[in-house]
Amino acid sequence: MTAVAAPSPAELRQELSSWLRNHGEEYAAVRAENEPLRIEDAMHADRAFQRALWDAGFTRHGWPESVGGSGGSAELRATLYEHLSLEGYRLPLPLGTLEVLGPVMVLVAPELSARFLGACIRGDEVWCQGFSEPEAGSDLAALRCRAVPDGDGWRVTGHKLWSSFGSMSDKSCALVRTGPEGHRGISMFLIDLDSPGIEVRPTRASSDRNEFAETFFDDVFVPGDRVVGEVNDGWGIAMTLLQWERGMYAWQRQCVLHTRLAELARSIPHPNPGEARAIADAWVRVTALRSAAARTVRRLAAGENPGPEISVDKVLLATTEQAVEDLFRLLDPAGFVLGDADRDNLHRADWFYARMATIYGGAIEIQRSIIAERVLRLPRAGGR
Amino acid sequence: MTFVQDELRRTADDLFSGRSGPLTLTDLVDLGWDELVAQEPALAVGTLAEAQGRHRGSSRLVELEIGRRLGIDPVDTALGLPWRGTTLAATPADVVLLADAADAPSVVVPVMTGDEVTLYPLEPSGLAAVPVTGVDAGAGWTRMTGMFGSVAGTVVTRDLWVGAVAAGRLALSHELIGVGQAMLDLAVRHVTDRTQFGVALGTFQSVQHRLADVHVDLEAARAVARTAWIDGDPNAAAAAHLAAGRAVDSATGHCHQVMGAIGCTWEHDMHRFIRRGLLLGVLLTADDWTWAGLVESSRSPARADLFV
């Protein structure tokens, strides 16, 4: 046990503000207004900042000591992310995937987490998900990437795609088939992306950025101790992990969307009534997302299972992303459509990213079906 | 906490179910309302208002919440609310009382006077009071028209008024959410029971997704209201009110559609909830101050602390 008590959220905010006053200038590249167009450049700047946040102790809060953290509730992480964004900084990109993968890794794979997760929290490594496949998108359980036992490990062969930041990642949390078809034959592996037999290709997204990547595994050896949790337990782990995507990732996104909306609203000092309504409407949506995500983060931090209700958060996240980004188009049509400045390009890239929000992590149609059948208890659809 | 919540919800349901007239001040006294609100304002107001919406009940709850902030004693004075926005500009007044005229010995109306609000008493001579009929005659409201201004009013600051309106809007938000929830409950029951093409309507994704969206909109409104209670910021309450209004619009459109022809009959309750939603829609609507406040909030870095 370390003697240092976890700070209160208020103390954490104060400490961060004071640290940024002294060191913020060194990380001007991470300020929201200086976001580079190329995602690779953003990643480079973000990782340096993430490392500095670790060295200063900020990103240790809310992670257990077993992974190098200083303990305390995950709510401290949420507090940190929002305060960073309120201070005008971007949230380092790797923290997005970390928050999807890390919390569940700690629970189901304590040894793997103790060995490897620290590097991801520090910013020394970037991790990505390896879930989707050409024939397994929303129907994730149809995945075919196969692992067969080989000595004290496994041989993996298959094709993964839509891995966010995949071309900039060091490790992939990949779902692979180790058993029969369906949910029960799936395992999760933590795979080094520099292993022999792996080829990673960036995918140029509609945003004109390399948002994600596809990965080809050709008879790749993965040591047996890289199984996350138990063999054939991958589906349950992936579903728990998606809850953190609904919770903490949605929380991170509301931080970003609040910042974007504020930037836009400040750029129009005297909105006409129509503009004022449009801005107000977007603010109402972001406020709803923030409140819903906060409750989910509190529940997850307390070890509760939010159940199928969490699909509500996912729908709110997706529709709010689109509402905010659409506002740029509505309120600054010339810049949005014709502008060639980096800001204009970024706004367009963000708009295209928002179009993905109703698709990634389980399309909005899937979420609506879950809400209908498992929350409202409507009779199950027959594939119509 | 959950026990208290359930208990209170049951009590609120009992209060409204089977009742034909409005919930009176005496009923609220019997409930220990003042103590309840003092101890657990969000829980008390939220639960009672939502139950009122779900049962199409009525009471002076929204007005009481405004009046409490202004120091108005509801036993002898009622606050008349404009049909549009939150304040009147000039005499004569045309306002709504959320009660029968006989329940209110005297009526004050909010009038914008420069950058403040003055609460003027309505003058007895020429005062007209007629029951509100229109889209929904069942709420027991009264429309009052009359003159003001020859007797001095009570000046309240803009901040005090905006805060009082916010309290009313929060109560109203919960009532609207209750109305929307009642529509969703009706629709869920219908699409579960009704079969066409040999299957329950609720098995069709097009039906499922409409109702899922209504649920999401109601949950979004509840989420904004939760933050507004923690926050105490009038702009958050205005946001809650807008979100609740949107949820009712969403329920009106989607639930009415999936009810099919049965929802178009006078006999079915759907139109009664739609009517109540339309009626409540006239109260405390956004005015210039509201929009300006919301835009200011969207620019501001201030946020309610949701992790304490």
Mean pLDDT of chain B: 95
Work out the number of β strands of chain A: 8
Helix proportion range of chain B: 40-55%
Oligomer: heterodimer
How many domains make up the coordinates of chain A?
Answer: 3
Derived from helix and strand composition plus strand pairing, the structural class of chain A reads: alpha+beta
Estimate what percentage of residues of chain A fall within beta strands: 5-15%
Order of helices and strands of chain A: HHHHHEEEEEEEEHHHHHH
Task: Summarize the helices and strands and which ones pair or pack.
The complex is a heterodimer of chains A (384) and B (308).
Chain A: H1 9-23, H2 39-55, H3 74-86, H4 94-108, H5 110-122, E1 127-130, E2 146-150, E3 153-164, E4 171-177, E5 186-192, E6 198-203, E7 212-223, E8 227-228, H6 234-266, H7 273-301, H8 310-331, H9 333-338, H10 342-356, H11 364-375
Helix pairs in contact in A: 1-3, 3-6, 4-5, 4-6, 6-7, 6-8, 7-8, 8-10, 8-11
Chain B: H1 2-16, H2 25-30, H3 33-39, H4 41-54, H5 61-70, E1 77-79, E2 81-82, E3 93-97, E4 106-113, E5 116-121, E6 128-131, E7 142-146, E8 154-157, H6 158-193, E9 195-196, E10 199-200, H7 205-231, H8 234-258, H9 270-280, H10 288-299
Parallel strand pairs in B: 1-4
Antiparallel strand pairs in B: 2-3, 3-7, 4-5, 5-8, 6-7, 9-10
